[in-house]
Write a structure and sequence with these properties.
By secondary structure, the chain is of the alpha/beta class. The chain has one domain (2-248): Rossmann fold (3-Layer(aba) Sandwich). Helix content is 50%, strand content 14%. The strands form 2 sheets. The chain has a 7-stranded parallel beta sheet, sandwiched between helices. It has a two-stranded parallel ribbon with strand order 7-8. α1 packs across α7 (199-212), α3 runs parallel beside α4 and α4 (93-121) packs parallel to α5. The radius of gyration is 17 Å and the shape is globular.
């Protein structure tokens, strides 16, 4: 078995790599940081191939597929991504566009290319890393980030239904964590006032629920699941007000 994990140098991606290796998966690990990837690879017991590349580029996303298309990937984990915090009119446009390229375009491109191969073989699995933000309808003060994760969720679920109706054995799902203790916070410039889950727990929970229990939408943490459930009973405008008040306390 072989898994490809993007954004593997830290956080959830790093912990997924460690756990997948413990389950016997050979790995293709992808990140911009060669040093961090090499440090991680030295701790793993299975075979590891490193690809140092910046996926916030359409060309690089396609290059990654060309580099790894003959690796016979059984599991693709689209984990690479980041967030930007702030009022929409004040955040850096270049940074936002880079986020869209990484959070949306890279996921879209890699899913398309690897899915075609998996469908031909009628086997394989793709786990896209979204966010609990993607299950809500709009995130003031992180508007573009919420939108990108909403795309990942809706995109994944639509493909799931297509595969199901075509009776394909290929599996696809989306991980939607709430606050997690990673360097996401420092990159986004926020400080979660809510209790955060450990990245190791989220990674193990996600892989187990996806591979063993065949879950399509994976939400770690009871409080996050409860919050998402009760959000269904709120009007769109009420939910936006609540989300805004939660977001502004992060700064």
């Amino acid at each position: 078995m072989k898994a490809l994990v993007t954004g593997a140098s830290s956080g959830i991606g790093r912990e997924m790599a460690i756990y997948l290796s413990s389950l016997g998966f050979d790995l293709v690990l992808v990140s911009r940081s060669k040093e961090k990837l090499e440090k991680l690879a030295s701790k793993l017991k299975t075979k590891v191939k490193l690809v140092v590349i910046d996926l916030a580029s359409e060309k690089h996303a396609k290059d990654l597929y060309m580099i790894t298309k003959n690796e016979n990937i059984d599991l693709l984990v689209n984990n690479a991504g980041f967030g930007v915090f702030g009022d929409y009119n004040s955040v850096n446009l270049t940074k936002e566009l880079e986020m869209i390229d990484l959070n949306v375009k890279a996921v879209h491109i890699l899913t398309r290319m690897f899915l075609k191969d998996m469908v031909k073989k009628d086997k394989g699995a793709i786990l896209n890393v979204g966010s609990s933000a993607g299950l809500l309808k709009g995130g003031p003060l992180m508007s573009t980030y919420y939108a990108t994760k909403g795309y990942v969720v809706d995109f994944t679920l639509a493909i799931y239904e297509e595969l199901r109706r075509n009776k394909s054995k290929v599996q696809i799902g989306v991980l939607c964590p709430g606050p997690v203790k990673t360097n996401f916070n420092s990159v986004a410039g926020v400080d979660f006032n809510l209790s955060s889950l450990e990245a190791e727990y989220v990674a193990r929970y996600a892989i187990d629920k996806f591979l063993k229990d065949k879950k399509t939408i994976i939400v770690p943490g009871f409080k996050v699941r409860a919050g998402i459930f009760f959000s269904r009973f709120l009007s769109r405008k009420r939910l936006l007000k609540i989300t805004y008040n939660i977001q502004r306390r992060k700064k």
